[in-house]
Amino acid sequence: MENIHYFSIQVYQNSHAWPLYREVGGEFLVPNLKRWLQFKRYMRNGNLFPEKKTFLNTPPVSILNIKKPININGVVLSLSTVTLEQSSKNCITVFVGHGTGDKRYPGNEAKKQFDLFDYLFVSGPKHLEKLKDTGIDVPEEKRIKIGNLRFDDYVNRRMDASRIMRNLGIIDTNRKNILYAPTWRWGNGTLLKYAIPFSQSLSSEYNLIIRPHAHDRMHVAKLRTEVKKRGLQHVYFSMPSDLLNHDTFDDFYISDLLISDTSSIIYEYLITQKPLIVIDNGFSEGHDMPAEYDISSIVKYYDESMDVLALVTDTLAYHDPMEHGYCEMLHNCFYFNDGKSIGRAVEFLENINSSRFV
């Protein structure tokens, strides 16, 4: 499909565009040379349309100067809330956000940013409630009900467990896999507090996959060294910027339980219907959610006074997604969950292309 562009500030944000790129192609946009070089590094050999020749065989990527009104003839799907001001009526901007975390959008600045988008891909009722709680009211005509684009591969089982485990280097594939995926500083991320204690405790019985937030990836080398120094085995690291080999949903697919804190993936993990444990990290700046969209009412919580190994073992043994409200929470928070969200997005883009860019 022509005239489709994906704008991101950080490489990891492109994971939300990847399902669409895989279906319709398009060009990626980044704000400066530094991000262009990062894209080339992490997306090497990720070009899915070989007729489009690119340096290092990445998907096509260009630099977009966001300090000026953008003049692009086509659709720009933004993975970031950074303000995109159009200078051409032939430029359509769409915000693509997962919209499910419990951290607030940044107030008045966010309202200005959302006002400039022509459309918003809405993942579900929780997404709208999060906007509402920040004082953002997106008109009905701008809301495109899509569901979560990243759910489709999981729902349709288009994933390869053997490949995923091989990419992570997992040796004992008979062990259950525990995924620890905390957020970063904004949200009181717990990586540096718990990565080593969890490694010491959980690796005695389970494979532990540690997936830091992209903003904490610089700590991985030190943590690897510490794990090795302590002689710990069955501890693996999933790198958030390496989208082609270490996608979040790959980790979801092979994991048996998630431990996180205020990361938005605690809601996305609901698509697995597997158990999760949320760390009580004292974060007090989240938005207010009605109970039907608040995962705190159904999950188990961990604090440092508890035995994490015993908690994990007990949670795995007695998890029932229907009885514990996981199934209901999933459908409360997200539209559809039927494996067809990408198709809805493609249909919208085809309609835009046929009506505006002929």
Q: How would you characterize the overall build of this protein?
A:
- With 358 residues, this protein is of the alpha/beta class.
- The chain folds into 2 domains: 165 residues, Glycogen Phosphorylase B (Rossmann fold, 3-Layer(aba) Sandwich), CATH 3.40.50.2000; 180 residues, Glycogen Phosphorylase B (Rossmann fold), CATH 3.40.50.2000.
- Helices cover 32% and strands 14% of the residues.
- It has a 7-stranded parallel sheet with strand order 3-2-1-4-5-6-7, with helices on both faces. Strands 10-9-8-11-12-13 form a 6-stranded parallel sheet, sandwiched between helices.
- The two termini are 12 Å apart.
State the gist of this model.
32% of the residues lie in helices and 14% in strands. It has 358 residues and is α/β, with parallel strands linked by helices. The strands form 2 sheets. The chain has a 7-stranded parallel sheet, sandwiched between helices.
